[in-house]
Amino acid sequence: MANGGRRPAPDESGMQHQEKEGLPRTMPFPLTSMNIAELQQLTAELGFPPYRGRQLFHWLYRRRVESVHAMHNLPHRLRQILAEQASIPRLALAGVRTDGRGTTKVLFSHEGESLQIESVFIQTSDRTTACLSSQIGCGRKCQFCVTGQLRLRGNLQTWEILEQLWAMERHSDRKADHVVFMGMGEPFDNWPAVSRALEIMTHPRGMALAPRRITVSTAGVVPGIRNLAKEHPKVRLAISLVAPHDSLRDVLMPINQRYPLEQLLDAARCFSRNRGDKVTFEYPLLAGVNDSLHHARTLGKLLRGIKCKVNLIPFNESPLLPFERPAKDVVEAFRHYLTRTGIVTTVRYSAGTEVQAACGQLVYLDIDEPGKGSPC
Fold first, then answer.
1. How far apart are CA 24 and CA 212, in angstroms?
2. β-strand 308-314 against 17-20: which pairing, if any?
3. Band of the pLDDT at 115, cuts 50, 70, 90?
4. With 90 as the cut, is the pLDDT of residue 2 above it?
5. Contact 257, 223 (CB under 8 A)
6. The overall pTM is greater than 0.70
7. Are 283 and 298 in contact (CB under 8 A)?
8. Which helix (H) or strand (E) holds 214?
9. Are 23 and 149 in contact (CB under 8 A)?
10. What is the 3-state secondary structure (H, E, C) of 241-310?
């Protein structure tokens, strides 16, 4: 992994092939970074029928076994080869913090490595949501996001993305029915791994999650939006907007200098039209920065004609950032104006603010000691 002390793999799954004694020999690689086509290819290369790859896929992602020896309907020889040459890795829990109301922030680390990942598990009366990270740190430098203040430490592999979900489910003893890519990192900057994770999550032989219950959030990577529409058209899209005009968004979200609002909204409009459903715009409200009625009017005009909804997110404060949360009457006035223009608008007070687990608050913290911690 670049910038993180991890050796880059020849491909995202980490497979390296060498010919020996007539069979492809593999260096240790994570099975849980492979999709069904890759597993079928692998079993064929090892001399077994492709349907064995489909069985392997089922064991890994539906049954979620921790050892190939548990895959009792696979031939003994295949299990032996896989046990010797492959791995089903696990992330190590480095710490857990809960707010007592169903939101848990989990810190993961790699054995023998200093790289760390934060994820969030949110349990309410009607749903259980896993908020996953796609990168360690983030390179987009959004000014209102704590994670954006870190340098990018590297991309996560597919197995590391999926393992966040599985580890949190194991810890809570509860299955997630919704998944959001709203943790650390920009998902579209690690698209090969994220796309493969989405494929595995939604495959009927795999985790079989409904695509409409999965949301990918972006700071505004326009090519990524188009890739999502092409490869996973039923997955939901959320776009972090934060400003209704380019001059302010250029400052708060430097990505806007590469993909200005006109390009971003055109991509959003196409995505919504092709999917036949609303695009969600996330609008963090920063006191005295983007929360006036003038901003609301400009936003209403900007989104006119786009099938969308707006989530207003009163800023989740952090000691590492200079912004403040607006007063409730300011938030309500902003919401009321957008609603009157016909835009579906909700106010989302994020869960987990007490444990720094809310939107924009994920950073490497000493989460075993509430109230303490600093970026690594």
1. 39
2. unpaired
3. low
4. no
5. no
6. yes
7. no
8. strand 214-218
9. no
10. CCCCCHHHHHHHCHHHHCCCHHHHHHHHHHHHHHHCCCEEEEEEECCCCCCCHHHHHHHHHHCCCCCEEE
Residue with tokens 């900057």: 189
DSSP H helices in the chain: 36-45, 51-61, 76-85, 158-172, 191-202, 222-231, 246-252, 261-275, 293-302, 328-340
149-180 pLDDT per residue, tens: 777 888 999 999 999 999 999 999 999 999 99
DSSP state of 152: P
Residue 20, amino acid:
K
CA nearest to 280, candidates 225, 362, 349:
225
pLDDT of residue 97: 86
Mean pLDDT within 361-376: 39
Q: How far apart are the first and last CA of the chain?
A: 18
**What positions carry a catalytic annotation?**
118, 359
Tell me the C-alpha distance between 252 and 181, whole Å. Answer: 21
Three-class SS of residue 59?
A: helix
Asked if residue 120 has pLDDT above 50, the reply is: yes
